Amino acid sequence: MADLPHGAQSHPTSGRVRDALMRKLSGTERMFSLGGTMTRVIGMGYSVDEGSADLAYYVMADVALTQRILRLSNTVAYRTQLGAPVTTISRAISLLGFDNVRGAALAMLLVDALDVAEHGVRVELQAALCASLVGQEMAHRSPHPGAEEAGICALFKNLGPMLLASHEPERYREIAALVATGKHNHAQASRLILGCTFEILSEAVLREWQLPELIIEAQASPPPGTLAVAPERAEWMRQVAAFSQDVARLMGHHHDPANAPEAAALLARYGVALGLDMPGLAALFDTVQQSMNGMLQSMNMERAPKTDPKAGSSLPNVLALAMLDAGEADEGEYYPSGKPKNARDLLLAGVQDVSVLGGSATSANDVIMAVLETLYGALGFRFATICLRDGRTGTFRARASLGENKAELQAGFTFPCAFTRDLFHLALENNADMMIPDAFSPKIRDLLPAWYKTLLPDAESFIVLPLVVGKAQLGLFYADRIFTAPEGVPPDETALIKALKAQVLAALAPA
User: Which of 74, 261, 289, 457 has a Cα-to-Cα distance from 334 of 20 to 30 A?
Assistant: First the structure.
C-alpha cells in the first residue's frame, strides 16, 4: 500500500467511510443483483458445461444487450472482409471470440448499473472499458494458461472509483482534486479522503459479490519499481491489471500516448515483465484505441469530455465564477488578504484532527467547533460562524462564532428560511461552496441582502459553505476578511475544505 506524504495520515474514520459505502451498495437492490449477474456471466468461463451456446442464450435473453453486441460486431474494428453484416449472436461470438463477448457483456452490465450522466462516472467507466481491452490484448501474448481472464481482472481494477463517482460523487471530486495538484497519487488521495485505497474498496465489493478469488487477488497492486517476469499466473494477472489501468489513464489524458513522457515510465516499470518495447507499446495503443472506438459506438456513448464542473448550474454567472476553484500559489507567509500561504498544511492538519473527533463519541458541537476553528485559523478570517436552521422561528441563525465582535455579529447573523434571490439562499439552493474575492463588486453587491450589508459593511471577501443533505438545507458556514482575496482557493485546499464540511454533515446526520 502506498505511503502518504510526510505529515499526512489516513483518516481514523476509514472504517466508517468504507463501511457506509458498502452498506449503501449492499442495500441497493440494483447493485446486489448486478453482483449476482456478474458472477453468473464470469462463471461461464469456468464450467465445462457452459460455453458459447450458454453465453449466446444469456445475451439473447436481453434485447438491449443483444443489440449492443451486434452493433459491436458490425463496427469497423470487427467488420469482416466480405462486409457481410453480422445478424446473429452465435456469429458474433464466432467473430469476436467468446472472451471478447463475455467481457463486452460485463462492461455493458456496468454501463446499465451506473449513472453515466455523471461526468466522473463516465470518466472512470471509460477507463475501465479501456483497461479491459488492454487486458484482452495482453492475454493474447501471455505464456500462462487461462490468461483470458486478464480482461476481466483489468475491467474491475477501476471498480472502486466507478462506484464512488456514482454513489458518493462529492468524495470522488475531493480525491480527484488532490490528484490534480500533483502532490498525491490516487492511492494517497483515496486514503486521505476515504481512509482506504480504491483497491481495498474494489476488493471488498468483489468479495461481497462472491467473484472468483483470482479476480479479487488481481486487484492488489504489484510492488513498486521495475517488475520482473511473473513466475505464475496469479502474479502475472496482478501485473497486467495494474498495467492496463495505467495505460487506460494515460490514453484518457493524451491524444498521442506513445509520445507522452509517461509512456517511457510505463516501459521502465512493466517492459521486462510483460515483454514490451516501445514499438510494441505504440502498437498496443493503436489497437486498443480502435477497439475502444467500436465499444463506445456500440453502447451509444461518446467520450467523456473535459467539461466545466459548473456547467448546467442554475447560479447566476457571477456566483458560478465565485465557486471554490483553482488559484495561484505564491511565496511568502501571508497574502495581502491575511490568508496564510501555508493554508493547505493547516487545513490538512485540521482534517486529521477533526477525523479523530469524528471517530470518537464526541458531540456534534465539538466537531462543529473544531471545523470552525480550522477554517478560521487556516484561512486567516476576521469573523467565522456556523448558521443552522431554526425550525421554531423559521430562520437560519448563527449558533457558534469566532473572531472580532463575535457576540454582536452572531446575534445579528440571522435570516429567514423562505427563499429570496440573494447570495445566501442561492448558495443553499444550489449547494454551491463559494469564495467571494471582492464583496464590493457591483454584481455581487446586488445579490447581498440588506441585513448583511448592515451587519457586515466592511467585509470585502468571504466564504460560504452550505450544509445540505439531499434537499434538506441544514445551514451554512460563513467567514470573512476585511480585505479582498484575489489569490483564490486552489484545488488541494478546496478538497480539504470539502472534507471538513463532510465531517460536519456526518456529525449532524441523525444516528
Answer: 457
